[in-house]
Amino acid sequence: MQENILQQITQKPMGYQQVTPDIMLLEFPFVNVCIIGDPKTNNGEWVLIGAGMAHTSKDIIQAAEARFGKGSQPKAIILTHGHFDHVGAIMELLNQWNVPVYAHELELPYLTGAMDYPPADPTVNDGLITKISPTFPNKSINLGNRVRPLPADGNVPSMPGWRWIHTPGHSPGHVALYRESDRTLIAGDAFTTLKQDYAESVLAKEKEVNGPPAYFTMDWQAAEKSVRTLKDLHPQIAVSSHGRPMEGKELNEQLTNLANNFASLAVPNYGKYIQ
């Protein structure tokens, strides 16, 4: 049964969702990737948010070229953080594209080979994905001088109107991206819109605001503060790296509930990173 569920997650085809005129969501089985840019405006320039799992570069390039034309490449790649499911295809993409990569300065050690992430904790709950999480890579990658720190002024390179917000907890340099004009939030893993630790939820793509993936979250106090920060933005639309977009009243009610009850709803009762 467990092997069958994992096989379905692995083999389930990628989907596409037009979230706003300039946000195309690539829904891979395990993690989402965002293409930001409207082909009809701004000279067709675009930015990639996240680099997905290993060996998905062909899918990402194909989706981008279908939207922006053959040979198109982004102005930049923005990383909310550097966990394996967000940088898996980045080396393949950088072999194809000569573009800069941006991340928070506290995330750079994990992207330049200087420091490894702590290993996953399989004891935080009984979810199938949690149980197999020790097999997930936690080693750093080395992007060398291809990766740069996000600007200190909060602007997001090649994404006018957006700002980055430091949302640590799931990782030290985790960031979310926010556009005030339409209150659109790209949350990364600061919170999810399904129960990422459970394979059944991932497969069903349930829409429900939850905390960050527990097996890789190392600082729960910081994670709670980050969720409260994002709740106070009152986003109209939220795109998480795990799960489908949510919006309006449903989003704000569930995000407020998570922020107000984070200890009981998100923080595991046990685990080696529980303070």
Automatic annotation (TrEMBL):
PANTHER family given in the database record: METALLO-BETA-LACTAMASE DOMAIN-CONTAINING, METALLO-BETA-LACTAMASE DOMAIN-CONTAINING PROTEIN
CDD domains assigned: yflN-like_MBL-fold
Keyword field: Hydrolase
One Pfam short name: Lactamase_B
Lineage: Bacteria, Bacillati, Bacillota, Clostridia, Eubacteriales
Gene3D superfamilies per record: Ribonuclease Z/Hydroxyacylglutathione hydrolase-like
SMART domains per record: Lactamase_B (SM00849)
Record gene name: yflN
Metallo-beta-lactamase domain mapped to chain residues: 30-242
Protein name as annotated: MBL fold metallo-hydrolase
EC numbers, comma separated: 3.-.-.-
Single annotated GO MF: hydrolase activity
Source organism (scientific name): Clostridium formicaceticum
Highest taxon of the lineage: Bacteria
